[in-house]
Design goal:
heterodimer, A: mainly alpha, 0% strand, elongated, B: mainly alpha, ATPase_proteolipid_c-like_dom (chain A), proton-transporting ATPase activity, rotational mechanism (chain A), ATPase_proteolipid_csu (chain A), V-type sodium ATPase subunit K (chain A), transmembrane helix (chain A)
Chain lengths: 161, 384
């Protein structure tokens, strides 16, 4: 059995939390948006492009979570090529994962709900596309905050560099 | 740091493996709690997403103010029909049916669509709503028999929609109203019509049969939304309750204008309305005249809109002004409900209300355009 340092094992949990919760939020959000989009496209074929755009928006939270998870795995030495993390850095890594994981969960769900509402508005009135995109983009900010804090934690918590 | 941490774990009597196991367990519990909490709102809106998008797409195809103005300005019925042929929803039916029938088919298709796509918690109500097509067909059949229309003319009145269409279609050559009622034996309308048959036989008026069908229809709708248990069913309950209130008020006002008393009215009233409760309904039925009915509605939304129409009624003596005011109120009320739950029942009520309003207005315009030179300003006043 491969010997893994405690700090590295904690970083692995952090990576799991990062992509797990961010992916959950993103998946729920995308499911909500896709369901609304399918209804719109079923009635109006010309809605396909707009439907795809609105459905794709809640993907970003999973991407943030994925990026943070990859960074944690690489810099914790779990993927090889480096020393394992200290226990303190490992605990920071859990904070990193929680930061992007929970922010991504809330943001993804919120964005999905906003996207589904926007698809409904656009299929009713095509002129609502720009406003719909703006309203749907707003819940992205929470994921960005989570992502930024995760990066800062990694930089100043001794994981990156 | 690691040494301090290991020391703390040792003090607690935990190994590193045990600590990680506890940490994973804690995270799993937190994760499960989070999933349960976030799932609740998602589960409540999820069934509505697809139907809401579908009806909003259709709502976007309803005629807007500009298009309605263009329709009002057309010269005659032919131009009106040609205008409607430019819209696939209507064009499909206008090739095979008359204008009035095409409009009825469109409305029946709307009820049918909503009953098919409505989420489970409101599906019962929309299934009850879709029965409107059967009720309309039975009423047409009764009216045709009363007017002694022949088989072809009677068949032409029927709208090819509803679960009983084929049963009703076979009754076009029935000789009497009694034969029609007997022909509907085994359907849910059989007992309703049989109960009203005595009054029909005594008065020779099919009005009693029609009124019994209307009452049955609205009571059915009401009982389908009787126990609202979430925001969507609460909104639907308030909408259907308002329809019941308006039906009751229209009947009471018309009956009082015709000097009918409590005993005449009571059998036709539908209890458990939304704003007009049973005790208030009783008071209104016992009112002396139309003015006292309207005064008795104080404290309800209906009071102000009917009070505003009172001067016109005093001048003309026609209760249609109250009926129009109540119809307008239902449309505005439904519009206010349609924005209350945008990822729930709101868009469904919005579309239903919009489609009903469109069909009503198109029928008004169709009737007006049959008369050469009917003033455009008068049509505009008649529109809902």
């Amino acid at each position: 059995m491969v010997e893994i340092a405690l700090g590295t094992a904690l970083a692995a949990i952090g990576a799991g939390v990062a992509i797990g919760f961010a992916g959950l939020g993103s998946g729920l959000g995308q499911g909500i948006a896709a369901s609304g989009s399918v209804g719109a496209v079923a009635e109006d074929n010309s809605m396909f492009a707009q439907g795809i755009i609105f459905t794709a928006l809640p993907e970003t939270q999973a991407i943030y979570g994925f990026l943070i998870a990859i960074l944690l795995l690489v810099f914790s030495g779990l993927l090889g090529g480096g020393e394992g993390l200290t226990t303190g850095a490992g605990l920071v890594a859990i904070g990193v994962g929680a930061s992007i994981g929970f922010a991504g969960l809330g943001s993804g769900m919120g964005q999905g709900i906003a996207a589904a509402g926007s698809v409904g508005a656009v299929v009713e009135d095509k002129g609502m596309f720009a406003q719909g995109i703006i309203f749907t983009a707003l819940p992205e900010t929470q994921a960005i905050y989570g992502f930024l804090i995760a990066i800062l934690l990694m930089v100043f918590g001794g994981i990156l560099g | 740091m690691a040494d301090e941490f290991t020391a703390i774990l040792s003090t607690l009597g935990l190994s590193s493996e045990a600590f990680i196991a506890i940490l994973i367990l804690v995270l799993l519990v937190i994760g499960a709690v989070v999933v349960v909490i976030v799932s609740r709102p998602v589960l409540s809106i999820y069934p509505y997403l697809l139907p809401a998008a579908k009806v909003r797409a259709r709502k976007g195809r309803l005629f807007d103010e500009k298009q309605l103005s263009e329709i009002i300005e057309v010269e005659n019925s032919n131009e009106f029909v040609n205008y409607l042929r430019g819209f696939p929803d209507y064009a499909n039916h206008l090739d095979n049916h008359s204008l009035e029938k095409s409009l009825d088919i469109q409305l029946a298709e709307t009820y049918d669509l909503l009953s098919r796509i409505a989420p489970k918690d409101i599906s019962k109500s929309f299934a009850a709503l879709a029965k409107n097509s059967d009720i309309i067909n039975i009423k047409s059949l009764l009216a045709a028999k009363e007017s002694n229309l022949n088989k072809d003319a009677t068949a032409d009145l029927l709208v090819p929609a509803g679960s009983l269409y084929h049963t009703i279609e076979q009754l076009v050559d029935a000789n009497t109203v009694e034969d029609i009622v007997a022909g509907l034996d085994g359907t849910e309308y059989s007992s309703v019509l049989e109960d009203a048959l005595n009054q029909y036989n005594e008065s020779d008026l099919i009005l009693y049969l029609e009124s019994a069908l209307d009452k049955y229809y609205l009571e059915n709708l009401l009982s389908a939304t009787n126990v609202p248990d979430n925001d969507n069913t609460l909104i639907l309950h308030s909408y259907i309750g308002t329809l019941v209130d308006v039906a009751n008020l229209k009947l009471i006002i018309r009956a009082k204008a015709d000097n009918l008393n409590y005993e005449n009215l009571d059998p036709h009233m539908i209890s458990r309305g939304y704003q007009v409760k049973d005790w208030k309904l009783k008071d209104l039925m016992e009112s002396e005249n139309v003015t006292s009915i309207i005064n008795g509605l104080e404290g309800t939304d209906y009071s102000s809109i009917l009070v505003d129409s009172l001067p016109v009624y005093d001048e003309t003596g026609s209760v249609s002004i109250f009926e129009k005011a109540l119809d307008d109120y239902v449309v505005k009320y439904a519009e206010s409900l349609s924005v209350r739950n945008p990822l729930g029942i709101g868009p469904i009520i919005g579309y239903l209300n919009g489609k009903e309003k469109e069909i009503k207005n198109l029928k008004i315009i169709a009737r007006a355009k049959r008369e050469a030179g009917f003033p455009v300003s008068e049509i505009q006043e008649m529109l809902v």
